[in-house]
Amino acid sequence: MVTSYAQSTTAVAPVRGPVADGVRPAAEGHWSRHRWTVIRVLSPVALLVLWQIGSALRIIPERILPAPSLIADAGAELVRNGELADALVVSGTRVAEGLLIGGVIGVALGALVGLSRVAEATVDPPLQMLRALPHLGLIPLFILWFGIGETPKILLVALGVAFPLYLNTFSAIRQIDRRHLETATVLGFSWRQRFSRVILPSIAPQLLVGFRQSLAIAWLTLIVAEQVNSDAGLGFIINQARDFLQIDTIIFGLVVYALLGIVTDGIVRILEARALRYQADR
């Protein structure tokens, strides 16, 4: 009786250790994952707070780096008087037109060179030589050729955009499994069907990677291009602020450029994720 009672007591006794505390490691792992996300969010906020405190204590001179509150006030003024909205429309139009022109040229040439050995031997070498040139160094030449209006700005963006798309399109086409193309040929697919059902879905993920690279280059190019005799756009706001020594407005304009780049890159990343999911589900 004593032995059976002891055994039953032992059987129902709570078990200590990793098995009994299995919920705790899971909870700790969940917090560990979210902890890094919280730190990533709070670190820029902490930097802004330190910046503001340094400016308030005169550690950071206002003539070199204005306080975040002053930069925010300058931005709020641009929003209130409508200058920022007008500038965004102008700058966004320049980037969109440059992306369209450069994107069509880059993808078309990449497809041509990727699908044709003759084109690779004749078209690719001159393009590689042109790619080696720093396209922003062509600004003086573009001004002499096209004047100081909108054309050189848009063409500079187009030139910067074209090469990432060209290289990614060419590389993606060359990586297509030839068995897929042979199967499509055996099934009697026309050229248009092979392109739309085999080639395009296969190159879409890498093409979107090139598009992300092109977007970053487009905004960087626009920052420089709009410094050349602009009468509208974000570059015009920055140039005007420079003439009046308004450092807070200059920094706000650069922040807007950065935010535009981040937002457009995020949109393309969403499209890229959908394309990769489609590729994985095939």
Describe this structure in words.
It is a multi-pass membrane protein. It is found in: Cell membrane. Pfam families: BPD_transp_1 (PF00528). It comes from Williamsia deligens. The chain has about 280 residues and is mostly helical. The termini are far apart.
Descriptive key words:
12 helices; 282 residues
Show the helix and strand layout:
Blueprint: H1 2-12, H2 23-56, H3 68-80, H4 83-115, H5 117-122, H6 124-131, H7 139-146, H8 150-174, H9 178-186, H10 191-225, H11 234-243, H12 247-281
**Gross geometry:** globular
Largest sheet: none
Gyration radius over CA: 28 Å
Question: Roughly what fraction of the amino acids lie in strands?
Answer: under 5%
Tally of DSSP β-strands: 0
Summed over residues and divided by their number, the pLDDT gives a mean of 80
**Which structural class do you get from the secondary structure elements?**
mainly alpha
What is the helix tally?
12
Q: Report the span from N to C terminus.
A: 67 Å
Topology order in helix (H) and strand (E) letters: HHHHHHHHHHHH
Low-pLDDT segments: 1-13
- Roughly what percent helix? over 70%
Q: What oligomeric arrangement do these chains adopt? A: single chain
Short synopsis of the structure:
This protein has 282 residues and is mainly alpha-helical. Helix content is 80%, strand content 0%.
